[in-house]
Amino acid sequence: MKKGFTLVEIIIVLAILGILIAITNINFVRLSQKSKLDSAANDIAAMVKEVYEKSNNEMDYTKWKIEIKRGSSNYNISIINNGQVVRSIELQNAIMEFNDGNVNLSVDTVNLINFASNGNIVFKNNALNNEFINFNIKLTNSSNSEIYKTIEIKSTPPGYVIIK
């Protein structure tokens, strides 16, 4: 009697390994996409908090802004102080949407977010220049709409930011 494995046994083991690798790869890609979106949401929320704190400390609500520039396949989000970029991040493979809790707002090539002295959120672009009590930024993965994060900015208490 010969010792060893038959060709059929080796093929079955390789098929099982292939299936396991495929499953883990799919989960890895999904977790990687979710992680990148989580990181971007945390960065944007930190930027919003920083803009509010700087504006409030200096009592000048016009010079600190968040600028969101939409490119063909990315967004560039920057903190602006008197026209100078203080900090910037790039968001790729995502769709960014704005709303006031009820109505979706138009997303333009350049969008600005800052705060009013009463704590309200000011959103400006070519189509809008409005103050809001509540303002949401929704980030959705462009290849998987089930992966998304919402950044809620509220004026009560002023500068309140939460990620859901």
Structure report:
It comes from Caloramator mitchellensis. This is Prepilin-type N-terminal cleavage/methylation domain-containing protein. Keywords: Membrane, Transmembrane, Transmembrane helix. InterPro entries: N_methyl_site, Pilin-like. The chain crosses the membrane at residues 6-29. The mean pLDDT is 92. Helix content is 32%, strand content 40%. A 6-stranded antiparallel sheet has the order 3-2-1-6-7-8, with helices on one face. The chain is α+β, with helices and mostly antiparallel strands. It has a single domain (7-163), classed as 3-Layer(bab) Sandwich (minor pseudopilin epsh fold), CATH 3.55.40.
Write the layout of secondary structure elements.
Elements: H1 7-58, E1 64-70, E2 74-81, E3 84-92, E4 94-99, E5 104-105, E6 110-115, E7 121-124, E8 129-132, E9 134-141, E10 148-154, E11 160-163
Antiparallel strand pairs: 1-2, 1-6, 2-3, 4-5, 4-9, 6-7, 7-8, 9-10, 10-11
Number of helices: 1
What would you report as the Rg, rounded to the nearest angstrom? 23 Å
Q: How big a fraction of the residues is strand?
A: 35-45%
CATH level-two architecture:
3-Layer(bab) Sandwich
Low-confidence residue ranges: none
Under CATH at level 1, the class stands as Alpha Beta
Measured as a percent range, the helix fraction is: 25-40%
Largest sheet: 6 strands, antiparallel
What CATH calls the topology is: minor pseudopilin epsh fold
**Structural class based on helices, strands and sheet pairing:** alpha+beta
InterPro entries: N_methyl_site, Pilin-like
Organism: Caloramator mitchellensis
Keywords: Membrane, Transmembrane, Transmembrane helix
Transmembrane segments: 6-29
